[in-house]
Amino acid sequence: MEKINPDALYFTFRLEEGTFAIPVTDVKEVLNYEPCTKVPKSLSYMSGVMNIRGSIITIIDFRLLFGFRPSKNLEKTRIIVTDLQTETKENISFGIIADDVEGVVQLKNVPSNVNTYGTLSERKEFIKAVGSNGDNFVLVLDIKHIYDSIEKEIEEKKN
């Protein structure tokens, strides 16, 4: 796990009872939920695709990706559109379905004597760091690793 950069800004959002974050520089925009077009035979956590101002964006349900129960009421969720630069300098955008968005914060490092590994989900390899915002733990996601893992899973499914 990495240490939190105390000068960095993080965009926080909720999935079930947990608070998650990504660097604010990875967030392009936040939208109210709108139904998306399902893609046949896609991975279970791939909700589909949406047309956002002329760009086709893949929508990923992070609740399902992290092994949480599906949301009962998607109309109350948000879509966080991310913008990620790959090694080839190509920009990739995709949407994250989150239960709610909280805002932009600076996080503090968790004291070294706090064991947070029991709180991590089955996809703990997607967690880059654990920080705190007041009394709450915040799991900072590695969006690049998540994207690469999904791409790998799609390739494996093709074969």
Tell me what the structure shows.
By secondary structure, this protein is mostly beta strands. It has a single domain, classed as CheA-289, Domain 4 (OB fold (Dihydrolipoamide Acetyltransferase, E2P)). Helix content is 13%, strand content 43%. It is built from 2 helices and 11 strands; from the N terminus they run βββββαββββββα. The strands form 2 sheets. Strands 8-1-2-11-10-9 form a 6-stranded mixed beta sheet, with no helix packed on it. Strands 3-6-7-5-4 form a 5-stranded mixed beta sheet. The radius of gyration is 16 Å and the shape is globular. It starts with 9 loop residues before the first strand and ends with a helix. The mean pLDDT is 88.
Estimate the helix proportion, in percent: 10-25%
CATH homologous group name: CheA-289, Domain 4
Q: Strand tally, please?
A: 11
Major sheet details: 6 strands, mixed
Structure in a nutshell:
This protein is mostly beta strands and 159 residues long. Helix content is 13%, strand content 43%. The N and C termini lie far apart (32 Å).
Give the helix/strand layout.
Elements: E1 10-15, E2 18-23, E3 27-32, E4 46-52, E5 55-61, H1 62-65, E6 78-85, E7 91-98, E8 100-105, E9 108-109, E10 127-133, E11 136-141, H2 143-158
Parallel strand pairs: 2-11, 5-7
Antiparallel strand pairs: 1-2, 1-8, 3-6, 4-5, 6-7, 9-10, 10-11
